[in-house]
Amino acid sequence: MSQRKILVTSALPYANGGIHLGHIMEAIQADIWVRLQKMRGHQCIYVCADDAHGTAIMLSARSQGISPEELIDRVQREHERDYAGFRIGFDNFHSTHSAENRELAESIYLALEANGHIARRNIRQLFDPEKKLFLADRYITGTCPRCGAEEQYGDNCEVCGSTYSPAELINPKSALSGATPVEKESEHFFFTVPAFSGMLREWIDGGAVHGAVANKLEEWLGEGLQDWDISRDAPYFGFEIPGNPGKYFYVWLDAPIGYMASFLNLCRRSHDESLDFDAWWRPGGDSELYHFIGKDIVNFHTFFWPAMLASAGYRAPNAVFVHGFVTVDGTKMSKSRGTFINASTYLNHLNPEYLRYYLAAKLGPGIDDLDLNLEDFVQRVNADLVGKLVNIASRCAGFIGKNFAGVLADQLDNAALIDEIRQAAPQIAELYEQREYGKAIRLVMAFADKANQYLNERKPWEIAKADRQSPELRAICTTGINAFRLLAGYLKPVLPALAEKTEEFLAIAPLAWSDFDSLLLDHRINRFQPLMTRIEAKAVEAMVEESRQSWNGGHDTELEADGETQAGAGATEPFADEIDIAAFAKVDLRVARVIEAGLVEGADKLLRLRLDLGREADGAAIERTVFAGIRSAYSPEELDGRLVVVVANLKPRKMKFGVSEGMVLAAGPGGGDIWLLHPDSGAKPGMRIS
Ligand SMILES: [Zn+2]
What we know:
Layout (H helix, E strand, L loop, with lengths): L4 E6 L10 H19 L3 E8 L4 H10 L3 H18 L6 E4 L3 H16 L3 E11 L4 E2 L5 E4 L8 E2 L16 E5 L7 E10 L5 H12 L2 H13 L4 E2 L1 E3 L13 E3 L1 H19 L7 H5 L5 E8 L3 H14 L7 E5 L2 E3 L2 E2 L10 H7 L2 H11 L7 E3 L1 H30 L11 H9 L1 H9 L3 H22 L1 H7 L4 H20 L5 H11 L30 H15 L29 H5 L3 E12 L2 E13 L5 E8 L7 H4 L3 E5 L5 E3 L2 E3 L2 E3 L1 E4 L2 E3 L12 E2 L1
Helix pairs in contact: 2-3, 4-7, 5-6, 10-19, 12-15, 12-17, 13-17, 14-15, 15-17, 16-17
């Protein structure tokens, strides 16, 4: 097999918040793939960087009274520490706020401009006259122009689901200063993405993305692409656009270029001549390029990025590997429940290899969300790794150590078993290559079961009672140790620390994939040390408790570059006008059961719920359709059969998507924390709440 040259990236974490389970899952997925390639003797380079630009960083630094540079330096150190804690083996970790990234972003932009792919036109935008900056939609709140709901964001209403432009909001306010924004015109620069529709279609048809993602992209291409606004006006933390004072590159323009910049930085400080930037990034070379990303940033990586690369004369990625989100115990990670778990909090309590194993066992190549079920996590890691895998070694090592001075036999007791395990090496490598980690692990664990079953049948402990020095005993334990060596080797991409301890215990060189052709016979091994201990449920509880504590009372400083903000946190909102009890009694609150929940096309905060409200006196079922703005916290599947509280006598409202016949009540700050009726409340559909 000839040596491949492979460059791998995972998405750049935003330099304004900690590394959490979602980041770690992606990094683990990429790291396993990279370690497999390295074990197989390929040249595989894994780079990443902090995504360090944008308004959110600028504002966050201001509110902390430090410079953006100080903020991003501190955060980068924390990020690197956390990734290292999970043994993510980056070959380089850089920053988008770097000399290399400025150089590349400028040269790529100038190429786009020279090729006629930059358009300029004036746009009108709301401007904060106090803070003196243009306000992105998420920094504006006001009253919904359709339904009158207050405190809605600038682009859509969470109550009625309408979308609108920020200028349409009634009484708009800047979420930053509370000032009334004014409309102001400014020239923006656009990348003419539609010019690349044909090229992108060909690239996608060529297998660059798979399955459901490819279908979605085809759909978007069919609807037609639009020019992409790549400039932002000062003040902005980022790179100024060459020749255009006061205009900056939008953070998403230079973020993916950060992949190249990290690699360029590595090339420049490496003495390895094979690390030649142009040879890896210009078309026609023999290297491969893969990006691991989450499904929320697909359009940036599959439309804008390949189009930019094409215009600037660089190669396209071979593939973009897209994964789903992490949930904990079946729901979105939640700060109040203690399941919004930061990498550093996890590491305070638990061995990183537990999580690497558990996530890998559930990972496949698709975009399904992956659930960390904490109870299953404890049970599965203990059963598989401690109960099955490490058990093989611990059952055999003692006899070899004590009875045979640590030297393995020169032949196996069961060559057929070991042959069978060895012959699976190519299949397991292929499963890893296809990112079918769950399948690879099931195969390895099936062999671990076989090896344990073999030891159960041969009972070395009984042979030892009869004859401590029996050659048969030695050959049986040598068979067990060889099975363990192969299985720990197959799991080395997933469990690098366990593999290191195994190599030390067996007194062998670091295992490469080609080593699985050979056996370990007539060889002195070291004294057995426990390779892995069981997870204590208490440690998991302590981690959840620490997570809960760490978010308690704190305001949400994590303004994601393109995420949502929690504006106005803190003081209680003013109360509405008083009503008397008679007025309140007019509100008919009923329990309802969700019969069907579905997404609403064009409204990404809404779910369409079909509700069962019990039966009429004549036995006829009462059903209602209600639109509820709870999609940020619940997927349709989770709501199936859930009980909710409904305002049953709310006048039906005609919305853009249909008529809403009632209103579902919920509590919580929003985002992932929206609380419905407790599932075990014992309430029955139709029951009146008073
Ligand atoms: Zn509304």
